[in-house]
Fold:
Amino acid sequence: MEQRKNLRASRPKREKSGSEKETANNSEMRLNRFIAHSGICSRREADELIAGGLITVNGKVVTDLGTKVLPSDDVRYGKKRLSSEKKVYILLNKPKGYVTTVEDPHADKTVIDLIGDACTERVYPVGRLDKLTTGVLLLTNDGDLTGRLTHPKYKRKKIYHVFLDKAVTRNDLEQIATGVDIEGETIAADAVSYADLDDKTQVGLEIHSGQNRIVRRIFEKLGYRVKKLDRVYFAGLTKKNLPRGKWRFLTDKEISMLKRGIF
Structure:
């Protein structure tokens, strides 16, 4: 077996000033922590990647679990360069009247205003809820996860509670399940039913399409006006015990669930 080497010993030596030495020592972190902060896996899984020879630092394979790196080092998993920025995952119960964007000069209020100074990292909404739609919204700086949650091929489940201006007929429910023509494309719900059997103006709808305003457009096509739209479920996340307008960080279990894509 090839002898393991500490990465720092392979770097070209250069005499550093006292301030440079202090900065370097303060910035160094263990390689497994660096990898975990990149958002691709946990620290324990990072140890397995390192031990398996799947991580390179500055072009060299590193297998020493005690290796420390600097933020400026080129750390890669395969061909993908990793960033050491800590990944942040925030679940928000979005209220009505807030725009789902980071910045909008024409918007009075954005969802970023609701999380305030929750973190120093810059986070972004995963997908969009229109200004009048409420409910489950995820914000993160994990670009890889965002891609897996929003790309149509992954078919992540979304469930909405829809309040209409009049009772929805049984025939229209069946039509929504079969498919409604939206600008030349047939869009079908994965599941649809009355949310309240005593009030047929309320419908529960499960769909994986990520098209803009797709739920509103489906009902509008059938002659209904959506009075209120609430997303109650997104890719395994719900707003349970989270009041409207409030947020919280995801648990490690929830983060793992999202990355494994089991919902």
Notes: The first helix runs from residue 7 to 10.
